[in-house]
Amino acid sequence: MKITTTKFGEHEGNTVYSYKLENNQGMSISCITLGCIITEIQTPNQNGEIENVVLGYDDVASYLERTNYFGAVVGRVAGRIDKGEFELNGQQYSLPQNENTNHLHGGPNGFDRQVWDAELIETESEVGVEFSYLSKDGEAGYPGNLTVKISYLLNNENELHIKYYATTDKDTLVNLTNHTYFNLSGNVKKDILSHQLKIKSQKILELNNDFIPTGEFLNVESTPFDFRDGKEIKEAVLSEHPQIKLVGQGIDHPFLLDENHNEEIMLADKESGRKLIIETDEQSVVVYTSNMLDESFKVRDVQSKKYLAICLETQGLTDSIHHPKFSPCILKVGEEYKTTTKYKFTTI
């Protein structure tokens, strides 16, 4: 196993470094200090052919030009906060609105746009990088100096472990996730409509017209959102269900997970034979079938379009600060925010 460090570019006077983590099985993960972005994941198909299975760019400018959050860590709070405001400990806080009236993924200058510090990790069993960032009190409207550490660790079992850690000096909100777009066909040969998706989830969050949770849980049984037995993604996104049509004929919904660390999320592509198994500490996974991608740009040499990839964002429930029956994403002084998600790349 080894790590290769190169210069990726610059942002606001800071050098952006790229780290390529390689194991002994031919798998590699490339990530950069801008937004902890995962730029490539190279994995073998059923014939041993190694190809990239995520969307990304090869330069800093492309990541900054668009707000699709390819491969990035988003925060302080992933997802949408209704009207960009919340109350905590009797005080009202206002956040920048960057999606109509919503505050989305930490705002227009969130964690995905920051250059993080990095330390390399090399042991007998894994290679990785630990990113760190101090989000200062008042940044993007949030209270507290928030110290954040994100680790990407690759082992010889073709497993990527993402570990999130944060502490604060004032009570604040934290709900972190990674926003990688997966396409297991290899080098984006096709869209993900024929990918098989399986999720151990009986309930999703219903969304209103602003894509904010209504607070109601919908049972997936007899709906397009029932992935408990696994099915092709197109069976869901091509349906006439009002929640599918609401978000642009696709999925952009939190699924409440029934289990943790027991192969609760699985994505597979029969043609390439690749399979991704995701296990997490988190309460939910936001499934996004890239139904909002437009056709005005290219992802490397591939034309952007709907359903080009799928995001599987493990996180706490969206907009939980406004819903008392959700588990809150409040981090208190003296507490630690700690969560891990594992991505295992294998074949069918």
UniProtKB/TrEMBL annotation:
InterPro entries: Ald1_epimerase_CS, Aldose_1-epimerase, Aldose_1/G6P_1-epimerase, Gal_mutarotase_sf_dom, Galactose_mutarotase-like, GH-type_carb-bd. Keywords: Carbohydrate metabolism, Isomerase. The keyword Lipid biosynthesis does not apply. It is an enzyme of class 5 (isomerase). Signal peptide: none annotated. Its EC number is 5.1.3.3. It catalyses: alpha-D-glucose = beta-D-glucose. One of its GO terms (molecular function) is aldose 1-epimerase activity. It holds the Pfam family Aldose_epim. CDD domains: galactose_mutarotase_like. It comes from the Bacteria. Pathway: Carbohydrate metabolism; hexose metabolism. Gene3D superfamilies: 2.70.98.10. Belongs to the aldose epimerase family. NCBIfam families: PRK11055.1. This is Aldose 1-epimerase.
